[in-house]
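Our consortium's second objective concerns turning raw sequence data into structural hypotheses that experimental partners can test. To show how far this objective has progressed, the report includes one record in full. It was chosen at random from the queue rather than selected for favorable results. The single chain below, 589 residues long, was entered without modification.
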Amino acid sequence: MTFDELNLSAPLLDAVSALGFTEAMPVQAAVIPYLLEDNLDLIALAQTGTGKTAAYGLPLLEKLRPQRNTPQALVLSPTRELCLQIASDLESFAQFLPEVHVLAVYGGSSIETQIRALKRGVDIVVATPGRLLDLMRRRAISLANIHTVVLDEADEMLNMGFSEDLKAILSEIPEERNLLLFSATMSREVATIAHSYLHNPKEITIGRKNEANSNIRHLYYLVPARQRYLALKRIVDFYPSIYGIVFCRTRMEAKEIAEHLIADGYNADALHGDLSQEQRDRVMQRFRSGHLQLLVATDVAARGLDVDNLTHVIHYGLPDDVENYTHRSGRTARAGKTGLSIALCHLREKSRIRSIEKLISAKMEFGTLPSGREICSKHLFHLASRLEEVDTTTHAQDIDAILPDVNQKLAWLDRDELLRRLMTLEFERFFAYYSKAEEIETEVLRGGDTKGERKERRNAAPRAVEEGMTRLFINFGKTDRLFPNKLIELINRCVPGRVRIGKIDLMQKFSFFEVDSHDAHLVIEEMSQYEVEGRRIIIDYADAVDGGEAKKSSRSEGRKASGGDKKHFRRDKAPRKPLPKSKEKRKKR
């Protein structure tokens, strides 16, 4: 449905056209005709970013009869940011209605300035509950002529503890008025407000009640708590054009994560309750303008945020209240766009994932974190795309003036070498980090000899091996903090000469790896002579060791450990045969 079909007046249609809108969004197509024809109360359930401000704002302006005495319409919002956004949108819709005046009143700004504006006369007040109550106590505002009240993001206001404030405000509104309630979810608190203050309301639901935005893809990764930040880095690195919010549970966590990201070279900042209003405004201005790629925020600090074009929402741990997951993820995929909601969680949060899936009526996909190679490849292709799309006409004259000299200087490089150097220069930080990065463990369900463990052991030693390679077993795994780079280092230290190493499969308590068939016997013979922190290395042909024997060997050797920290794979303290020094150190000496 187009806006021309909605029976709006010419000034409003001109404003909508000037803003570039032609097709009405579903919530607008459903709500606008109803509000134009009837004077009844309304409950509208729709996700954030679906065009709700226009849905109630255009009919409100259509029915307004400017008189400049006292306000005729009141819009309540949970936060200062949303309050300002709503007021700005209403002013845009009223740009060809010069007699209409809109005023935003909110905390953290001069109340005297707002009182002076009210005295000059306004038609629509957009307010946060706290500041409106303050103005009412000072008798600086009269609600006697209010004919329409809009509760925008009603669920957010109630979650923030504004229930008593709303009751105090609504008690001062004339009995003959329209009350419009817009919410993303129909919580018990929202239902109570609706039952108490709305008269025979019509309910309009876009999608299913409490359903998440279908344009959002939901992913989750199970990672140990100690590696959660490393997992966050991988996700951020894997999406070069990311523009998103990282949600944390506490303000301390938000501050720490933001500090780590900034120290690691990311364009990030924090938004939390310890910031002054001036600091908060500065952070939000940078984020809205795109100068920040990542905003690290708590649920409370981010409530009411209205930022377009967010590509990602990252949950640095799931919220305690699963309904907050819907509010968080709803920050992305606004106005018909698509978005990605990614949760970093641990095994104890597995049941919460099921609760979230039930709430949003959607499946959360179990993800595998990208490898360092995949991340570097993604950035290389991203740079290639930027090179393809760059506008070479910008500063063309200045560039053309120096291009011959640059071309002459680099003439000795062929195209492939030039590209190789460009890529290395651009992504040296990524190459350097991921060549030495700690492997991130993907958590799996554990606890005794579970069905999952038995399945893992059955599949642990497949017979398909690369031609010319032999598969070997070793009695160390992920629980010993054995990573591929650690295993390669150990092999190189124990076995003389250079050994070709193939595929490595790390299990929880043991591992398998492939070596050149010519070296297999030598590797077994040499490595079997050593211990790691008092625990003897058991190494054998994979075909000779089934899963059950592997696990049994791993347990028995763990019991024989001579007091070393068998959970950490580090330099050996008391080997049966002294381990050779690492080859790099021998070369330096």
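The partners drew two points from this record. The longest helix spans residues 415-436. The CA atoms of residues 357 and 363 lie 6 Å apart. Both points have been shared with the crystallography group to help prioritize constructs.
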